[in-house]
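hey can u check if this looks right to u? its 512 residues, i copy pasted from the old doc so theres a chance i mangled smth
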Amino acid sequence: MFFVSFWRNWRCISFDSFKLYRGLCVSEMGLQDRAMASLGLCLLWAVLSQSQQPLDPEDQEVFQPQSTLSDMEFTTVSSFRGPGNNDSRGNKELPILLWWTAGLFPHFPGDTERIDCARSSCMVTRLRKVQLHRRTTAIIFYGTDFRAYEAPLPRLPHQTWALFHEESPMNNYVLSHSPGIHFFNYSATFRRESDYPLTLQWLPTLDYLLSPPVFSLQQKNKWRRAGLAPVLYMQSHCDVPSDRDRYVRELMKYIEVDSYGQCLNNKPLPERLEDTSTATGEDAEFMSFVARYKFHLAMENGLCADYMTEKLWRPLHQGCVPVYRGSPSVADWLPSEPSAVLVDDFPSPRELAQYLKALDGDDAEYARFLEYKLPGRVTNIRLLEAMRDREWGVNDMSRPNYLNGFECFVCDRENERLAATRAHRRAPKKNPLPPARMANSSHMGCPLPSPGFGSVVDLPANDSWLQMWPPDYWQSLDQAEGLQSLIQHNESDPGLLWHYIQKLAASRTGGV
């Protein structure tokens, strides 16, 4: 079973770049000891590697590229000068940022581009042959596609790693462990603590949130009297770490729920709406269909701080009340109090159902949940300031998308790091080395998956969720520690990962 789960954990998860451009079994104590030891080693490695001096072109013993790259390939790339940028260097003098996940490269149609950011300029490329080039100072990874056994090795001391990961934690639990997230010097994730936060990526504008309800409360009550359930559930991805179906199945015992997706389905969608693209693309007819419901079960596929998707923002946009389970910090971002029913505020599905029934029968109390749509009634200052201050936009041509924004964030920080290092070389006593940058658990840090309802000890051994997600979580820690060992031993073959994982396992059990 271990080997089956291990190789399943290395599955390739398909990536649809177009989606990004839409807005563009050990004891508990043993595992804790392992994690702390790994953290210490990784911290030591990161500090040592960051203290290494970047390689200047004029150095006598520069690292020579293992490729046929010529400076001419970069010299011929056209340049665009952004406002406020006074970087006068030519292309062949600029640091290079390599997008390791080529399908995420935010420039078309070429493979290489010059970017002129707020304070400095860089060359960016998706050509992996520049991995070992002396001017390649940063490598940018997409978290969903980051695989320990495909990491660019050896990791060079003059290079930093940057992580872009806006997707669910379920896509790669390697990043939720300290050894895994510590590989990266810069981060752009859904967590507000990351270097370039993407927390509100699913909320395009404040106006989207404040648009009038699609249907009045009177119309919704009319549909209720005609037989529409008070609660909507629509999910077609059924096997997820949050185990939401287990909770909803229990909730259905106490309140009527219309479920249209493949998960817990009890009602067919109208034939014209069966194409799932109508849901993902916010088709107008589909949106009107689901907007008839008073309550939407808004259940994320992973439970992680600040991970909030359209499951929360879409019902708020439509004027429905989300019954939400996902980010434990969601209250920090809601437009006002009250505006959503939080599942975790209730000790059981039965008590949640009792509350929803009472709210369904009390028009005045239900209307309080929609008061944020009235002028001046959004009271959450954090939300207002975040929407005002974020530099990237969603479907907004006046702002960069978050891919280009993070790219420029890395470019500016790398130029600052290189300049500070050169200053230190010239006058070590006067100019100390820049402090090491390293992402930490607050940049991701998603917890061990737990059952959607009930206790894990009560689940049968053959429960499919139990067999998949807890092992996935812990085996991801093995991958993170294995890659850490590869890097510390300056290995150049990521295919040795399994060998290092075996060695780690043997050392834990006292084997040879």
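The first strand starts at residue 96 and ends at 99.
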